[in-house]
Amino acid sequence: MSLHSWKDFRLYVITGENYHTGRSLVDVMEQTLLGGADMVQLRAKDLSKREVLAQAYTLRKLTDRYNVPLIINDYLDVALAVQADGVHLGQDDLPLKEARRILGPAAIIGISTHHIDQALDAERDGADYIGVGPVYPTGTKAGRKAVTTDYVREVAKQVKIPWVAIGGITLGNVGEVIAAGASRVCAVSAIVGSEHVAETCRSFRTALTGQQGAGGSGETRTIRINGRNEQTNAQSVHALMEQLGFAGKRMVVELNGVIIAREAWHTALLEQGASLELVHFVGGG
């Protein structure tokens, strides 16, 4: 996703190291990007500021490679230090207007909201997007009452800026959230805590786009993408690029050692065991 079109995001993923003990942050988050996450937030409330800063630098390099916005939870100073694309603030954090004054007009500033008055206030005050939740009970917001899909429906009717449903959303209930009016969702444990992170992201994207497998046949096959084994039901390179969120990006695709021209993506079929190398060009290429 080009940053100028960040508002087109569908799948927002937040870090949660406690959900993937034994797997590194960078490996897990790269899997989310391979799976089609198009917004990433660093949230690490239990770490020291130095540790958060180190993670932010690592994620800044990773998200730059995939041309995906990096959002920092709470810490404006960390966002400035690593040149993140923006921050996400809670209701008790620095007021939005002060954050805007510090970060400037180009920064993406998101606000967590829990009822419609907060949502409309954030929209009026210049938030770039709002979080709507927690839709369901969640360990990341322990003790906070779930807003249910009723609040999702309210926001869908009244809020004009981008908004993302968040909180306890899983592949089992995301259909209910979408039916309530959400076109963007955010997940933590359901994604970073899953055994197959990239595949889970693709399943979320499939639900959000309303495309059964984005051209998939329903038959899951194992392919190798940039040296990693991945599961997909995409039948063609084009369908795979749709699932990964790469369809509109400047890509070079090599399938089984042969570079596939974009106009041939539809007819380039993916067989069991296929090997792909994907290169994404950013900026001037």
TrEMBL record:
<dbReference type="Pfam" id="PF02597">
    <property type="entry name" value="ThiS"/>
</dbReference>
<keyword id="KW-0784">Thiamine biosynthesis</keyword>
<feature type="binding site">
    <location>
        <begin position="41"/>
        <end position="45"/>
    </location>
    <ligand>
        <name>4-amino-2-methyl-5-(diphosphooxymethyl)pyrimidine</name>
    </ligand>
</feature>
<keyword id="KW-0808">Transferase</keyword>
<dbReference type="InterPro" id="IPR003749">
    <property type="entry name" value="ThiS/MoaD-like"/>
</dbReference>
<dbReference type="Pfam" id="PF02581">
    <property type="entry name" value="TMP-TENI"/>
</dbReference>
<feature type="binding site">
    <location>
        <position position="141"/>
    </location>
    <ligand>
        <name>4-amino-2-methyl-5-(diphosphooxymethyl)pyrimidine</name>
    </ligand>
</feature>
<dbReference type="GO" id="GO:0009228">
    <property type="term" value="P:thiamine biosynthetic process"/>
</dbReference>
<feature type="binding site">
    <location>
        <begin position="188"/>
        <end position="189"/>
    </location>
    <ligand>
        <name>2-[(2R,5Z)-2-carboxy-4-methylthiazol-5(2H)-ylidene]ethyl phosphate</name>
    </ligand>
</feature>
<comment type="function">
    <text>Condenses 4-methyl-5-(beta-hydroxyethyl)thiazole monophosphate (THZ-P) and 2-methyl-4-amino-5-hydroxymethyl pyrimidine pyrophosphate (HMP-PP) to form thiamine monophosphate (TMP).</text>
</comment>
<feature type="binding site">
    <location>
        <position position="74"/>
    </location>
    <ligand>
        <name>Mg(2+)</name>
    </ligand>
</feature>
<dbReference type="GO" id="GO:0004789">
    <property type="term" value="F:thiamine-phosphate diphosphorylase activity"/>
</dbReference>
<feature type="binding site">
    <location>
        <position position="93"/>
    </location>
    <ligand>
        <name>Mg(2+)</name>
    </ligand>
</feature>
<feature type="binding site">
    <location>
        <position position="112"/>
    </location>
    <ligand>
        <name>4-amino-2-methyl-5-(diphosphooxymethyl)pyrimidine</name>
    </ligand>
</feature>
<dbReference type="InterPro" id="IPR016155">
    <property type="entry name" value="Mopterin_synth/thiamin_S_b"/>
</dbReference>
<keyword id="KW-0460">Magnesium</keyword>
<feature type="binding site">
    <location>
        <position position="73"/>
    </location>
    <ligand>
        <name>4-amino-2-methyl-5-(diphosphooxymethyl)pyrimidine</name>
    </ligand>
</feature>
<dbReference type="InterPro" id="IPR022998">
    <property type="entry name" value="ThiamineP_synth_TenI"/>
</dbReference>
<dbReference type="GO" id="GO:0005737">
    <property type="term" value="C:cytoplasm"/>
</dbReference>
<feature type="binding site">
    <location>
        <position position="168"/>
    </location>
    <ligand>
        <name>2-[(2R,5Z)-2-carboxy-4-methylthiazol-5(2H)-ylidene]ethyl phosphate</name>
    </ligand>
</feature>
<dbReference type="InterPro" id="IPR034291">
    <property type="entry name" value="TMP_synthase"/>
</dbReference>
<keyword id="KW-0479">Metal-binding</keyword>
<feature type="binding site">
    <location>
        <begin position="138"/>
        <end position="140"/>
    </location>
    <ligand>
        <name>2-[(2R,5Z)-2-carboxy-4-methylthiazol-5(2H)-ylidene]ethyl phosphate</name>
    </ligand>
</feature>
<comment type="similarity">
    <text>Belongs to the thiamine-phosphate synthase family.</text>
</comment>
<dbReference type="InterPro" id="IPR012675">
    <property type="entry name" value="Beta-grasp_dom_sf"/>
</dbReference>
<dbReference type="GO" id="GO:0000287">
    <property type="term" value="F:magnesium ion binding"/>
</dbReference>
<dbReference type="GO" id="GO:0009229">
    <property type="term" value="P:thiamine diphosphate biosynthetic process"/>
</dbReference>
<dbReference type="InterPro" id="IPR010035">
    <property type="entry name" value="Thi_S"/>
</dbReference>
<comment type="pathway">
    <text>Cofactor biosynthesis; thiamine diphosphate biosynthesis; thiamine phosphate from 4-amino-2-methyl-5-diphosphomethylpyrimidine and 4-methyl-5-(2-phosphoethyl)-thiazole: step 1/1.</text>
</comment>
<dbReference type="InterPro" id="IPR036206">
    <property type="entry name" value="ThiamineP_synth_sf"/>
</dbReference>
<dbReference type="InterPro" id="IPR013785">
    <property type="entry name" value="Aldolase_TIM"/>
</dbReference>
<protein>
    <recommendedName>
        <fullName>Thiamine-phosphate synthase</fullName>
        <ecNumber>2.5.1.3</ecNumber>
    </recommendedName>
</protein>
